[in-house]
Write a structure and sequence with these properties.
Mean pLDDT of chain A: 96
Largest sheet of chain A: none
Oligomer: heterodimer
Low-confidence stretches of chain B: none
Distance between the termini of chain B: 29 Å
Number of helices of chain A: 3
CATH architecture of chain B: Alpha-Beta Barrel
Low-confidence stretches of chain A: none
Number of domains of chain B: 1
Helix content of chain A: 40-55%
Chain lengths: 88, 259
């Protein structure tokens, strides 16, 4: 697929997603201040888009992942939150 | 979810789908006894094939206790006792979707018990990998557990829901990799085709999510359209949406090619 074809097929969609993300962060600000590990993780993931290096999707997914290797003692919930709460 | 709607079946057949493979899943609540699983397995093996047949769709399924319900070890053991009789049913392709959800010790024990059952019976295995932040760790634990069992032939195992950060782990270990397509939140058709372009088309297939969240029954035909828009030729598209699944599933003596 040519570069022009990639832009033709996907630029508008990507543009829309960036605006959606910006609007989400604005909405969050309007809802008040406060820390949340998911937002911290999102900001950290965004940095992966800006370094010009390849495999951005893989690196974003890795940055949002639980990096530990030992099984949990017990499952206390069924749902995943989208970001690892233990990230610093 | 536990059943496609009639509209879903009609749309799938109209779009050219020939066969549906439905993994045993979570009912949206934890079943309180092995009897609840018994009834569900009857739905998968008796009623659902008849429902799908009304639309000209071949229906196959996989049987197991889903990892979301694997925390209760005593219940899991009860359910494991009734699974073999259902594995003998004519539309059951193997054990699945087993795997991990939150990567707990009990989930891992129940996963290994299912793997042992599949190995003893020489069944195909369909593996669910956890979602979102739990996927990387869960995929590593699953691959390690499967590799530790010398009876397991990786070519008879499909590890599902791979994404960009787990696909190499699965393919490099010799397993089949499934890309489960979602309209949002997880792997989209565009990202799946990106992975095909990067990693090739061997031991890869795509499937549509049939989850409690938003999912699209026509996700695979839409991924085929995505490939066409990018200039993939019809042979390449056919390999991903038809030939590859046919190759893997034909390892089950019960599977009949729709052609």
């Amino acid at each position: 697929m040519t570069r022009d074809r990639v832009l033709e097929l996907y630029f508008m969609e990507a543009r829309s997603k960036v605006i959606d993300l910006a609007a989400f962060l604005d909405r969050l600000d309007r809802a008040g201040n406060g820390k949340d590990f998911r937002i911290d993780a999102l900001h950290k993931a965004l940095k992966e888009l800006q370094d010009g290096k390849p495999e951005r999707a893989k690196r974003v997914l890795l940055s949002l992942s639980d990096p530990t290797t030992e099984p949990l003692g017990a499952a206390t919930t069924k749902a995943a939150s989208g970001a690892w709460p233990g990230a610093k | 979810m536990v059943s496609r709607t009639t509209d879903d079946y009609l749309a799938m057949v109209t779009a050219g789908c020939q066969t549906v493979c439905e993994p045993a899943f979570w009912a949206g609540y934890d079943r309180t006894s092995a009897d609840g699983f018994f009834d569900y397995f009857r739905q998968l093996t008796e009623y659902e094939p008849k429902r799908a047949a009304k639309y000209g769709l071949d229906h196959y399924c996989w049987i197991c206790l889903n990892p979301k319900e694997a925390e209760d070890l005593s219940l899991a053991e009860e359910v494991l006792k009734i699974i073999p009789q259902f594995l003998d049913c004519p539309n059951v392709l193997g054990v699945g979707e087993i795997g991990l959800n939150k990567n707990s010790r009990n989930e891992l024990k129940v996963f290994e018990r299912h793997v042992d059952l599949a190995a003893r019976r020489e069944e195909l295995i369909l593996v669910h990998t956890p979602h979102l932040e739990d996927k990387l760790k869960g995929t590593k634990l699953i691959v390690d557990a499967l590799k530790a069992d010398s009876r397991i032939n990786p070519g008879r195992v499909v590890i599902d829901h791979v994404e960009e950060h787990t696909i190499e782990l699965v393919l490099d270990a010799g397993f089949w990799a499934g890309m489960t397509l979602y309209p949002e939140s997880k792997c989209t058709a565009a990202r799946a085709v990106d992975m095909i372009e990067k990693y090739g088309n061997e031991r890869l297939w795509m499937n549509s999510a049939c989850d409690w969240g938003v999912s699209v029954p026509l996700a695979v035909p839409r991924a085929a359209l995505e490939m066409r828009l990018r200039g993939h030729d019809l042979r390449e598209i056919d390999k991903l949406v038809f030939a590859n699944p046919l190759k893997f599933l034909s390892q089950s003596k019960k599977f009949r090619s729709p052609m």
